[in-house]
Structure formats: C-alpha cells, structure tokens
Amino acid sequence: MGQFTHDVGRRGFLRAAAAGTVAIGAATVAGALPAAAQTLAPDAGPHGASLSIPKDAIGIQLYSVRDKVYDLGFRVVFEELSRMGYKEVEFAGYTQNTSILGRQITLQEIRTLLDDNGLRAIGSHIGIGSFRSNLQQELDNAQILGMPNIGTANAPSDTPTVAAYQAASEDFNRWGEAATARGLKLYQHNHSGEFAFGKDQPEVRLYDVFLENTDPAHVYLEMDVYWAFVGQFRYPGFDPAAYVRAHPYRYTMFHMKDGKSDPNVADGYDMTEFGAGDMRYQRFIHAIGPFGNHHGIWEQDTAPGTQPDPPGSLGAAQRSYTALANLLS
Q1: Which one of 56, 87, 99, 115 is most buried, counting C-beta atoms within 10 A?
Q2: Cis before 310? omega within 30
Q3: CB count in 10 Å sphere of residue 161
Q4: Of 291, 247, 255, 295, residue with least CA distance to 148
Q5: Rounded alpha-carbon distances, angstroms, from residue 90 to 6, 11, 180, 279, 298
Q6: SS3 (DSSP) at 306
C-alpha cells in the first residue's frame, strides 16, 4: 500500500469518527425466548449491581477490524483501540500488509505493540486443522503473545452426528491437555450449528454432546451470544444463559455481538453493531449468574465495508465499545 503516515491516518480517522459517531443505547427489546426462560431473570438488574462480565476489561475480536489490521497494520489499530478504551484483544491471524514494514510483522513485534498500548492478548482463533498438525507451534505462538487462552471458531466436527461429536470431543480433550501442560486454556467458539440435533440421534442436541464428553479441566468455551440466540431461534428448546449458569467456570469468554430480530430471515436476526440491535443483553448478563471471571469481547463480522470509510470498521468499534461499556456499568 506504500508508506503509510500514521499521524495523517489517525487525524483522518478521528475527524471521521467525530462526524459519524451516533449515540446508541444498549437495547433491551425482547427477543425470541421460550416462555420458560422469561422467568429466569428480569430484563434489568439493580443499577450498579455486580456483574460477572467486568466493564474494565472490554475486549475486541480483531476479525471485526480485519480490513484496518491489514491496510494500516497492528500498530495503528492497537493505538486506536487503546484510545477507545479497549483493554483486551482476541486475534484472528497474525499478519498485516507486508508493504507497511517491507516484510511480515513478527509475533514478538506484535507483543511489543500490545505492551506499548496497554493491551492484553486474551485469546486467538486458530483453524482446527492447525491444532491437528501444528499444535505445539500454536501453543508457542500463544505464549510469545502472552495470551492465557487459545481456541478455534470451527465446529467440533463438520459432520452433524452424535458419533462425530463424541469422536471430536476426544480430540479436544487431547489438545486441551497439551494446552494445560503449557499453562493455557483451550476453548471452542460456537456458531449456530452446534445447537442443532444429531442426524443419527434427532433427540440429542450436539452442543450437549460436546459439553458432556469434553473434560472441564482441559476444554473451555467461548459463547458467541449472537450465534447462541440464532441457535435458539433455529433449534428451540434451550436458554443460552442457562448453559453458563450450569457451567460457569468453563465459559472464559463471551462474544458480545448484537443483532436486530427479524423472523423473516433464516437466522431470526440481522447482525449489527453493539447497541443497535434488540438482543436481550440486559437479561443475559443478569441471568448468567455471579461468577466474575468472564471476559466480554465485542465482535461484528460485518463491520468492514458497512460503514462510511473512514472511519469504517473502527467507527463501529468505537460506538460498540461505548454501548457495551454503558451496558456493563
């Protein structure tokens, strides 16, 4: 992309952000919840009540700003995210445009940029194939970056059967043991398909198979709240918050991703920036229970290319941080 001048890029972003920022409150409009789940917790708890998702460690999945990471590089993106108030980042790859440095950035350089900007690497999404073929190197990478967790956004198995999920659980147990031996936690991030029922056993939910057959000492979970609610819409009969209450120590992180309800689309929701949707996050954060070691990470898969650019996806990151901080206050 040629030589990038950081000061010009930053000024351009700030001007555009100031012009384009809108006030978006954290929505609490009712979503599509089963009647039984409505009574589990009120939509809103007492103002200032202790929450199990701390507001002083809000994170971001870098996939949300992947276009900026590639075009501007980690240095500029980390500086902007730190200025916004983010404290933690979850990786979705470790590369940027090689024209920024004239070569690819190294992991140690990324770690230095994190430290320089007061950011902590909380986790990373790795392709499940790399766990099969390159596990120890991935664990090495995680330790260089100083992250306590390493995971995958792949489903446990591409085959939606109970038998396949049982077999996949054994793989995760083995990988999890290797991660534990290195002082790390291995986690799986859900989409909606994990909440479907097994093709071989139509009465059994696949997510339950994975939970029951993985070792809680070695395999952890990152609930993508948006996709859990989509799963609830597509495969009814469960409450996302109830999983967390039943297994609080296994859910190290949440993807705090918002959506606007639309029963006319296949997923029941359209993804949007945080606070612009109507998913019942007030109810969710009060219904998951008091355990206080969950990390809230903002993600919006669709942020790149959906906003005026600049600020583009960084503008969505700024507005979503404000809405998420307000929700957790």
Answers
A1: 87
A2: yes
A3: 17
A4: 295
A5: 23, 26, 19, 23, 10
A6: coil
How many residues are listed for the chain in this entry? 329
Q: Quote the pLDDT of residue 191.
A: 98
Q: What is the mean pLDDT of the chain?
A: 88
In this structure, is the dihedral angle defined by the CA atoms of residues 316, 257, 300 and 140, taken in order, positive or negative? positive
Give 12's contacts (C-beta < 8 A, 6+ positions apart). 310
Residue type, 317: A
CATH H-level, domain 6-328: superfamily: Divalent-metal-dependent TIM barrel enzymes (3.20.20.150)
Average pLDDT over residues 180-201: 98
Rounded Cα–Cα distance for residues 298 and 315 (Å):
13
Rounded Cα–Cα distance for residues 62 and 94 (Å)? 10
Alpha-carbon span 18 to 83, nearest angstrom: 14
Beta bridge partners of 197: 205
* Cβ atoms of residues 314 and 18 within 8 Å: no
Where in the chain are the domains?
Answer: 6-328
pLDDT at 292: 65
40: pLDDT strictly greater than 90: no
Kindly report, residue by residue over 274-326, the tens digit of the pLDDT.
999 999 999 999 999 887 689 999 999 999 988 788 899 999 999 999 999 99
Of 92-101, 228-237, 299-308, where does mean pLDDT reach its minimum?
299-308
Whole-number Cα distances in Å, 224 to 62, 211, 296, 323: 15, 15, 10, 17
150 forms beta bridges with: 186
Element (H, E) at 170: helix 162-181
CB within 8 Å of 98: residues ≥ 6 apart: 104
Residue 277 DSSP label: S
Strands 258-261, 251-256: pairing is unpaired
